[in-house]
Amino acid sequence: xxxxxxxxxxxxxxxxxxxxxxxxxxxxxxxxxxxxxxxxxxxxxxxxxxxxxxxxxxxxxxxxxxxxxxxxxxxxxxxxxxxxxxxxxxxxxxxxxxxxxxxxxxxxxxxxxxxxxxxxxxxxxxxxxxxxxxxxxxxxxxxxxxxxxxxxxxxxxxxxxxxxxxxxxxxxxxxxxxxxxxxxxxxxxxxxxxxxxxxxxxxxxxxxxxxxxxxxxxxxxxxxxxxxxxxxxxxxxxxxxxxxxxxxxxxxxxxxxxxxxxxxxxxxxxxxxxxxxxxxxxxxxxxxxxxxxxxxxxxxxxxxxxxxxxxxxxxxxxxxxxxxxxxxxxxxxxxxxxxxxxxxxxxxxxxxxxxxxxxxxxxxxx
Length: 366
Hints:
The protein is of the alpha/beta class. The chain is built from 15 helices and 13 strands.
């Protein structure tokens, strides 16, 4: 099989997933792989180091660059199509959607190329801008020969729109940067809880604030770190003033995210809605239990009572109760062991790459 992996984003989970997949595929002798990447990708050097052929195309780094770059899209479309044709690609796999993906994907279909997008979200998250969402996803699915989803929740969203489209169901892997070391614990430290990633309304910072108000008076030595790009006070007024809470509102590089997870005792995902979470497999990769609300793909990613705890409801009271259950050292140790076992599976990118190839080799009517 010959695959062209396509990712024109610059940073974040898409770049990390592209690198992990590319490195695993490069180790196989039953597949040939080429890459189409943004020249502005933060991991371009690491992706080149896989030894795979790379076409680095000029995209953008800013809103102004996006607007100016639109003039290049027709030329870049032809460039991607030629790369796929010259490489003899059996499939063009879009690792994560990009603002230009819906403009380019239809041309791949018209050229007779097999386009397979990895769909991370089938609906806009509550509170996120929905402008042009349906148009974007419709164009990608119309151009797709099949699609890949990482949760049953997302697969169901794809099937609602395109009942006849083949959807391959894969597991979202853990991305563990090398060299991550947890900070040493001081004697008498309380439990360290973390909530990490871009701050958005659907991620339930207000729910977490109210849960912490219930939880912290009973466990005054506990600490909560909320870190990521966004406006925490706008989403959850009063959060940063609560006892034991630290808020760091800035972009987290993948190494920073991994370090903060590795230093934590518990990762909190108080989401009001979720396709799936990239933080959950990261936590499992470091053997850190997760407490999450029972929504969307989170309920699929966590094995309640094995590698984490699902709150009984999407309420502050239920989150506080679930957090309290992790304060028992024996229970926390059991869940940490389960998280480590899950992490070993989720960090096996050779196996993940193998499942991708097996899915793409399936007849569409299977």
